[in-house]
From TrEMBL:
<keyword id="KW-1133">Transmembrane helix</keyword>
<dbReference type="GO" id="GO:0019748">
    <property type="term" value="P:secondary metabolic process"/>
</dbReference>
<dbReference type="InterPro" id="IPR029058">
    <property type="entry name" value="AB_hydrolase_fold"/>
</dbReference>
<feature type="transmembrane region" description="Helical">
    <location>
        <begin position="18"/>
        <end position="38"/>
    </location>
</feature>
<dbReference type="GO" id="GO:0016747">
    <property type="term" value="F:acyltransferase activity, transferring groups other than amino-acyl groups"/>
</dbReference>
<dbReference type="GO" id="GO:0004185">
    <property type="term" value="F:serine-type carboxypeptidase activity"/>
</dbReference>
<comment type="similarity">
    <text>Belongs to the peptidase S10 family.</text>
</comment>
<protein>
    <recommendedName>
        <fullName>Serine carboxypeptidase</fullName>
    </recommendedName>
</protein>
<keyword id="KW-0472">Membrane</keyword>
<dbReference type="GO" id="GO:0006508">
    <property type="term" value="P:proteolysis"/>
</dbReference>
<keyword id="KW-0812">Transmembrane</keyword>
<dbReference type="InterPro" id="IPR001563">
    <property type="entry name" value="Peptidase_S10"/>
</dbReference>
<dbReference type="Pfam" id="PF00450">
    <property type="entry name" value="Peptidase_S10"/>
</dbReference>
Length: 223
């Protein structure tokens, strides 16, 4: 299913409609508790320029957003996307899946391979601080950190009783990739890798098989 693209904006200037528009616009802001600066990006995504605990603007490109998957897009998968700090037009693109299952991909962003890490200091009752990681894989690759399966991190389902098996989770990741590349066609020709840790070693081979079987539909080079 391709992403729904709005055909126009319709305004109703009564107070109730204005309030609804305001809360819709800032839904993601409140959800991820980040200070966001919105630029020209795909629908349901935002550019993050500041994070709590980090001193000053982020020195790298960070995009966050949702992509709906499933028959009625009842599953909304959340992602963090960090562009390569070298040459994003040529450098590899990595999909990073954290294990668990159910561990937030923020751990990959701030604890493992991402451009952030927590500053080391004695606890004095203050909030933790974030600093740049000199060992980030984003020095030479763009990384797409995906919150999966559903209910991981900020990912959610519109049906409260929704359950997801490993195979369904793999289908969701594959559909997510197809839609993400539609929204980010500039990365279609980049070398692409599916990577992760822990439990993701069980699901990654299935995801790779889905990509291999449907690579013409995915419009993606897999290396």
């Amino acid at each position: 299913m391709q992403p729904n693209i709005p055909h126009g904006l319709y305004y109703n200037y009564d107070i109730k409609s204005i309030i609804i528009h305001i809360f819709t616009m800032f839904h993601l802001l409140f959800l991820v508790t980040l200070f966001l600066h919105v630029q020209s990006v795909p629908q349901n995504s935002s550019i993050v320029e500041y994070l709590p605990g980090f001193d000053g603007p982020l020195p790298f490109y960070l995009q966050t957003g949702y992509i709906g998957v499933g028959k009625s897009e009842e599953v909304q998968l959340f992602y963090y996307f960090v562009k390569s700090e070298s040459d994003p037009s040529q450098d590899p693109l990595l999909l990073w899946l954290t294990g668990g299952p159910g561990c937030s991909s923020f751990s990959g962003l701030a604890y493992e391979v991402g451009p952030l890490e927590f500053g080391q200091k004695a606890y004095n009752g203050s909030l933790p601080i974030l600093v740049s990681s000199p060992y980030s894989w984003t020095k030479f690759a763009s990384i797409l950190f995906l919150e999966q399966p559903v209910y991981t991190g900020f990912s959610y389902a519109t049906t409260s009783a929704y359950k997801c098996t490993d195979l369904q989770a793999c289908d969701h990741v594959y559909e997510f990739l197809r839609k993400w590349f539609v929204n980010h066609p500039e990365f279609i020709s980049n070398p692409f890798y599916v990577s992760g840790d822990s439990y993701s070693g069980i699901t990654i081979p299935v995801i790779i098989q889905l990509i291999s079987n449907g690579k013409d539909m995915l419009i993606l080079y897999v290396i």
